[in-house]
Please model this.
Amino acid sequence: MKYLDEYREERVAMALAARIARQVTRRWNIMEICGGQTHTLLRYGLPELLPPEVHLVHGPGCPVCVTPLEMVDKAIEIAARPGVTFVSYGDMLRVPGSRRDLLGVKADGGDVRVVYSPMDAVKFARALPSRQVVFFGIGFETTAPANAMAVWEARRQGLANFSLLVSQVMTPPAIRMLLESPDNQVDAFIAPGHVCTITGCQEYEALNREFGVPIVVGGFEPADLLEAIAMLVTQLEEGRAVLENQYVRSVRYEGNLPAQQIMRSVFEVCDRRWRGIGQIPHSGLRLREEFAAHDAEKIFGVSEPGAEESPECISTAVLLGRKRPTDCPEFARRCTPENPLGAPMVSSEGACAAYYQYRRRSAEGSTSNV
Model:
């Protein structure tokens, strides 16, 4: 298959790993931001191909994982109300709230449905005029255009029974937060290719210039990630810090301009809480006032619950790249995908889920802090 099989060839991967080994002379901490990249790294055993000097750190780029606990509680409160059809991506149903999850609401008789696109929720609203249809709009910039288009289309069709519970976040402010942290030890970043397909590279170039940190936009296949790591190691060893684009087959510097336009038309920038991390300034999107009629928080007047994370869960340290999932004493014991203590064990992009699927039989020791 063009643009897929050739990026999984063993010969290519081994050549890139050898190139990295020839270049590296000291320890470098490299963070991949996106959870999809984390899963590729672990699925194909790429860390084992790299020299020990290259230390990979997993970042907070899992949309399900960073959806705040209080927002999950709001979703559960809305979904449990009579006359509501609550629509979501499947991963969100098992994310634990303060007391239960959306799957529990469904088990208790709530009308909770799983879709692959927010436009499916718009179709439900058109087909079910007597019910309030609410879509859980989570994710990074990758999902924002589709969520914005759903709201735009609902208004165009006059669907007063469609609303969006918004928990959209943006990646560059999270990278800024990590770089401004006094205990930051990340030397370079693999930027999320799918996000950059939408947004382009401008904001990452601004971070690169301000903080003097190498950033390479990377893809999601084994050869993509190994090449991105090789490009970063070259910069680090040569004392350079620039923005480079490894994922050229999908990412243009300016990004997807029509997608950016629909985002700007429907959403505006706001401060946003991230689960396990806290408030990050200017890191979120919310509906503009002209779309308030489709804002689920305003329609249902949901409260701001005083939610607290499980004290047993180390997901905060995992999301910030300070610990690995295998550092958790409950990993693969009391915390499993079937019975998660935290969101990173639920999501298909969560680091804990990746380690559970690919590393639990060869769990690393607890010496993995950055």
Remarks:
- Residues 315-360 form one domain.
- DSSP finds 16 helices and eleven strands in the chain.
- Residues 222-238 form the longest helix (17 residues).
